[in-house]
């Protein structure tokens, strides 16, 4: 160990003689360099060749790393506190657990790098590249990736809330299990991206390219996808309730068992789509047909907080008939029976924890109010907007 420490001390001495001297030494000594645990704080490393080095636990606080090349090196748990990072290359570097606190960050190449367990909160990455970067569990809250190339990057389980990806290139990126709360993907290219099991709370995808994206079983309720493209995407079992899809393109999308109540689809484009279980049968549409067929009508929701029984299911047609007699000119159809209790079954096999029966109302008079009170919560249809329900 003492011999290794002595060798590291000699190399540190060479580095402190100046970048030009160090780079010349590297040209003559092309083997891997061991500098693990070295203290290089406040050293001028501008333009230094530090590629293919073992730099784990090295202290680089206060260093000028402008144009420095760390490609292919290991920098695990490295300390960059107060360092200047501009046009620095971290290509293919292992940066897991590195500390970037208080760095003067302008831009860097993180292509194919590993950045697990790093806190990049608040960083401005507009002058950086992240092609095939392995972010893993990195923290990227409130970061700015405007116009950045993240093609093929792995952001599985990353914390990305309040982050901006305006016009970012995210082709093939993996966001599986990531937290995307309040993140903006405005005009971004997410072609072939993986978003399954991500948490989308209040994220925005306005005018983004989501072609061939797997969104099966995702909860997208209330999100803004206006002008976005879902061509060829998997939306089976996806919760699209209350989503804004105005001007979006869903041609060739798979919509089997998707939940769509309350969605807004004015100006939506769809030449053809899959509605079957096996994604084999295409249903073709003329311009405007999809919007006319699936735009939201007024709804009445009959909520059964204690679950719906077999008898009540059998009585549904009589309930519809009574409502139609009570409100002349109204035509009602059962739209869906929705389990709001996430499948929690009670003693009766037909009784689900909390059930909603949604009825489509084709009432022309938008100011009418309809209500019905079996053993369920009383709800009425108000004039505020189609599909808006008010509890008494």
Question: TL;DR?
Answer:
The protein is an alpha+beta fold. 12% of the residues lie in helices and 13% in strands.
**Arrangement of strands in the largest sheet:** 7-9-8
Q: Tally the helices.
A: 4
User: Which stretches are poorly predicted, pLDDT < 50 over at least 5 residues?
Assistant: 342-353, 361-392
CATH-level-2 architecture of one domain: 2-Layer Sandwich
How is the main sheet built? 3 strands, antiparallel
Helix content: 10-25%
Which secondary-structure class do the elements indicate?
A: alpha+beta
Tally of extended strands? 12
Question: What do you see in this structure?
Answer:
The structure is a single chain. This protein has 392 residues and is of the alpha+beta class. The chain is built from four helices and twelve strands. The strands form five sheets. It has a three-stranded antiparallel sheet, covered by helices on one side. A three-stranded antiparallel sheet has the order 10-11-12, with no helix packed on it. A two-stranded parallel sheet has the order 1-2. It starts with a helix and ends with a strand. Residues 342-353 and 361-392 have low confidence and may be disordered.
Secondary structure blueprint with pairings:
Elements: H1 2-16, H2 19-28, E1 33-34, E2 53-54, E3 84-89, E4 104-109, E5 272-274, E6 282-284, H3 289-294, E7 298-304, H4 310-326, E8 332-339, E9 355-361, E10 371-372, E11 379-381, E12 389-391
Parallel strand pairs: 1-2, 3-4
Antiparallel strand pairs: 5-6, 7-9, 8-9, 10-11, 11-12
């Amino acid at each position: 160990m003492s011999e290794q420490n002595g060798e590291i001390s000699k190399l540190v001495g060479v580095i402190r003689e100046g970048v030009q001297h160090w780079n010349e030494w590297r040209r003559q000594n092309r083997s891997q360099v061991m500098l693990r645990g070295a203290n290089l704080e406040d050293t001028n490393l501008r333009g230094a060749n530090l590629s293919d080095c073992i730099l784990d636990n090295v202290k680089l606080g206060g260093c000028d790393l402008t144009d420095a090349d760390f490609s292919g090196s290991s920098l695990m748990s490295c300390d960059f506190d107060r360092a200047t990072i501009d046009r620095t290359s971290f290509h293919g570097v292992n940066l897991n657990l590195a500390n970037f606190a208080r760095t003067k960050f302008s831009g860097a190449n993180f292509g194919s790098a590993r950045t697990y367990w790093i806190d990049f909160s608040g960083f401005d990455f507009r002058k950086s590249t992240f092609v095939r970067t392995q972010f893993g569990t990195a923290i990227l809250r409130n970061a700015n990736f405007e116009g950045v190339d993240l093609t093929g990057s792995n952001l599985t389980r990353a914390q990305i809330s309040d982050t901006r990806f305006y016009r970012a290139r995210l082709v093939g990126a993996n966001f599986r299990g990531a937290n995307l709360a309040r993140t903006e993907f405005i005009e971004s290219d997410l072609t072939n991206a993986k978003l399954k099991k991500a948490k989308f709370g209040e994220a925005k995808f306005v005018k983004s390219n989501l072609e061939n994206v797997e969104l099966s079983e995702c909860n997208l309720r209330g999100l803004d996808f206006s002008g976005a493209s879902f061509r060829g995407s998997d939306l089976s079992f996806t919760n699209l309730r209350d989503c804004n899809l105005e001007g979006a393109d869903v041609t060739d999308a798979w919509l089997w068992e998707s939940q769509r109540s309350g969605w807004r689809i004015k100006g939506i484009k769809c030449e053809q789509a899959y509605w079957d279980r096996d994604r084999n049968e295409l249903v073709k549409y003329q311009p405007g047909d999809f919007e006319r067929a699936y735009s939201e009508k007024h709804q009445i929701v009959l909520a059964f907080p204690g679950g719906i029984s077999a008898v009540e299911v059998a009585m549904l047609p009589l309930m519809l008939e009574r409502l139609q007699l009570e409100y002349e000119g109204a035509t009602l159809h059962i739209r869906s029976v929705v389990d709001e209790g996430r499948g929690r079954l009670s003693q009766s096999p037909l009784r689900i924890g909390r059930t909603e029966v949604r009825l489509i109302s084709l009432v022309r008079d938008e100011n009418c109010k309809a209500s019905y009170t079996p053993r369920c919560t009383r709800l009425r249809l108000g004039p505020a907007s189609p599909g808006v329900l008010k509890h008494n």
